[in-house]
């Protein structure tokens, strides 16, 4: 298979770096996909400098002018959809249908952002004084640093970068070091679409050096971070030292499906399967907990266990594979730790997972699904910490109120699905559970770009992505115009001096 010599895109030019790292296929680590620059602190500074310079002219264009370039980009993305989908599977391991879903979601974001260019960007508001008009306008913030994770390597960079540039900001994007080739292909499309030099810069590297230098740069006005809670918390603390720096953190979850006693069992079982095991449990919205009413739990457990035993694990390029590999060896070690902790804490194992190392699995990061039953206890590691892997607990509960109490017993609050036929019950759950994304009779996964995407509590700092991001990358300014021939003030203030 081919290997790509990746470059950074800085000020419209392709640049290498003295140091580099490899990107390999998590299904077969002998398959080298690309060789990527490990961007130094000095090179990060150059990228921010380029973005700062480009901001001066980019912000002068209208939203419609900028949207036209986003539209060019969206057409190129559509042209390359199949090629990119295969690359997503090769570089991050998801089965092909999921690789494609990632690129389709990216395309939807590009189309949505192109359309937003012709939507209102502010509004007129009445004044106390009839001769005055007041406006609320959106102004760009400046240079935006986008730091993105590996698990949606095409969609998430676009979720944050495209609204930023539409609003007149310029961007320095650092994609995950696990998926630099996907980031590089996006950079090629930004270049081909005609974004002027410096408007979108894409630099590659790890978190400790490249990411850290970027978020600490004084000329960065806002950081849009998506990733783990540990790194998000760190970035928020670092940025709090600079009053001007705005930070959006979209982080992890310990999400759940709540399955009530009147649930449609087919929906319940399928929603649980998708929520727990799609993307091998490596979604921020994965449900590591299935909170099930005791009355139906035995039947639910029996049916889900049968289904989970049938899950085919393998290289995502192959037909019929439901779960691809984990992204890296650290992911495997984390999954093992969570499995051991669950057993130590008293899990009743229903489907025991293991690391798969023979035959077709020999060169990849494969594990099989782990499903267990765990009567609720507060303060357990396994029910509270994000495993980010196929590690799913069935928790029997006594009724809706206990279900929600158990659901809320984590630091997180990202995604929640409730399975019930009773509109009064889902309404009560909606109003008492802590989440940013709620679903009824659906899995806890499955975002759409024209909805806000984010969590509460430790899952996010209240600035949702997707539809919500324009709010974070613009300042809302008030602008008041007097049409009278004298100064007339609000609150009855006069200009009299005597
Ligand atoms: P991660 O936190 O390890 O890395 C995310 C990004 O942060 C990477 O680009 C990394 O290089 C960078 N980074 C790491 N240390 C840094 C530092 N000190 N300074 C600046 N940047 C740094 O996360 P990951 O393993 O790529 O992704 C998995 C995590 O992301 C999970 O916790 C998952 O739940 C979460 N996630 C959240 C969402 C959401 O929208 N809420 C979406 C996808 C993934």
Concise account of the structure shown:
The chain folds into two domains: 4-251 and 460-479, Aldehyde Dehydrogenase, Chain A, domain 1 (3-Layer(aba) Sandwich), CATH 3.40.605.10; 255-440, Aldehyde Dehydrogenase, Chain A, domain 2 (3-Layer(aba) Sandwich).
Word description of this protein:
This protein has two domains: 4-251 and 460-479, Aldehyde Dehydrogenase, Chain A, domain 1; 255-440, Aldehyde Dehydrogenase, Chain A, domain 2 (3-Layer(aba) Sandwich), CATH 3.40.309. The strands form seven sheets. A seven-stranded mixed β-sheet has the order 15-18-19-14-13-20-21, with helices on both faces. It has a five-stranded parallel β-sheet with strand order 10-9-8-11-12, with helices on both faces. It contains 15 helices and 24 strands. With 498 residues, the chain is α/β, with parallel strands linked by helices. The model has no long low-confidence stretch (mean pLDDT 97). The chain has helices at 41-58, 63-79, 81-92, 96-116, 155-166, 180-193, 207-216, 229-239, 265-277, 297-309, 329-344, 381-384, 399-408, 423-432, 469-473, and strands at residues 4-5, 8-10, 13-15, 20-25, 28-37, 122-126, 132-140, 143-147, 170-174, 200-202, 220-226, 246-250, 255-259, 287-293, 348-351, 355-356, 366-367, 370-373, 391-397, 415-419, 437-440, 452-453, 465-466, 474-482. The site of nicotinamide-adenine-dinucleotide (NAD) has 31 residues, from helix 7 and helix 8.
Instruction: Please tell me the total number of domains.
Output: 2
- Shape field: globular
- Determine the N-to-C terminus distance: 86 Å
User: Which structural category do the helix and sheet elements fall into?
Assistant: alpha/beta
**Biggest sheet architecture:** 7 strands, mixed
Provide the β-strand percentage band. Answer: 15-25%
Provide the CATH superfamily of the largest domain: Aldehyde Dehydrogenase, Chain A, domain 1
CATH class of the largest domain: Alpha Beta
Q: Could you list the spans in which at least 5 consecutive residues all have pLDDT below 50?
A: none
């Amino acid at each position: 298979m081919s290997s790509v010599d990746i470059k950074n895109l800085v000020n419209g030019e392709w640049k290498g770096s003295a140091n580099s790292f490899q990107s390999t296929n998590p299904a077969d680590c002998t398959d080298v996909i690309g060789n990527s620059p490990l961007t130094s602190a000095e090179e990060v500074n150059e990228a921010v400098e380029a973005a700062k310079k480009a901001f001066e002219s980019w912000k002068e264009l209208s939203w419609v002018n900028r949207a036209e370039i986003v539209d060019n980009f969206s057409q190129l993305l559509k042209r390359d959809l199949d090629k990119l989908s295969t690359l997503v599977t090769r570089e991050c391991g998801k089965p092909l249908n999921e690789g494609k879903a990632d690129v389709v979601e990216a395309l939807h974001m590009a189309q949505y952002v192109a359309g937003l260019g012709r939507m209102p960007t502010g509004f007129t508001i009445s004044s106390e004084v009839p001769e005055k008009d007041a406006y609320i306008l959106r102004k760009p913030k400046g240079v935006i640093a986008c730091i993105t994770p590996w698990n949606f390597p095409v969609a998430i960079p676009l979720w944050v970068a495209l609204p930023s540039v539409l609003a007149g900001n310029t961007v320095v994007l650092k994609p995950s070091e696990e998926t630099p080739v996907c980031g590089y292909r996006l950079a090629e499309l930004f270049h081909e679409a005609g974004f002027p030099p410096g408007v979108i810069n894409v630099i590659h590297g790890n978190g400790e050096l490249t990411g850290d230098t970027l978020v600490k740069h004084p000329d960065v006005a806002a950081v849009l971070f998506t990733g783990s809670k540990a790194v998000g918390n760190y970035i928020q603390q670092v940025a709090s030292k600079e009053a001007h720096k705005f930070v959006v953190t979209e982080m992890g979850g310990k999400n759940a499906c709540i399955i009530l006693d009147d649930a449609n069992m087919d929906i319940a079982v399928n929603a649980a399967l998708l929520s727990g095991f799609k993307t091998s449990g490596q979604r921020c919205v994965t449900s590591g907990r299935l909170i099930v009413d005791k009355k139906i739990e035995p039947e639910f457990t029996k049916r889900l266990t049968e289904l989970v035993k049938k899950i085919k694990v393998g290289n995502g390029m192959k037909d019929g594979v439901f779960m691809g590999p984990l992204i890296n060896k650290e992911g495997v070690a984390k999954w093992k730790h969570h499995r051991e902790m669950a057993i130590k804490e008293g899990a009743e194992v229903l489907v025991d997972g293991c690391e798969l190392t023979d035959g077709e699995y020999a060169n990849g990061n494969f594990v099989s699904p782990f499903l267990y039953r765990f009567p609720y206890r507060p303060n357990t590691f396994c029910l509270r910490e994000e495993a980010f892997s196929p590690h799913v607990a069935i928790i029997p509960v006594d009724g809706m109120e206990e279900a929600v109490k158990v659901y809320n017993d984590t630091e997180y609050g990202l995604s929640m699905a409730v399975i019930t036929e009773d509109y009064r019950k889902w309404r009560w759950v909606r109003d008492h559970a802590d989440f940013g994304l709620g679903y009824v009779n659906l899995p806890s996964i499955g975002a759409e770009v024209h909805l806000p995407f984010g969590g509460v509590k430790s899952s996010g700092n209240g600035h949702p992505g997707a539809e919500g991001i324009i709010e974070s990358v613009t300042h809302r300014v008030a602008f008041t115009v007097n049409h009278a021939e004298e100064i007339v003030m609000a609150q009855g203030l006069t200009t009299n001096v005597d």
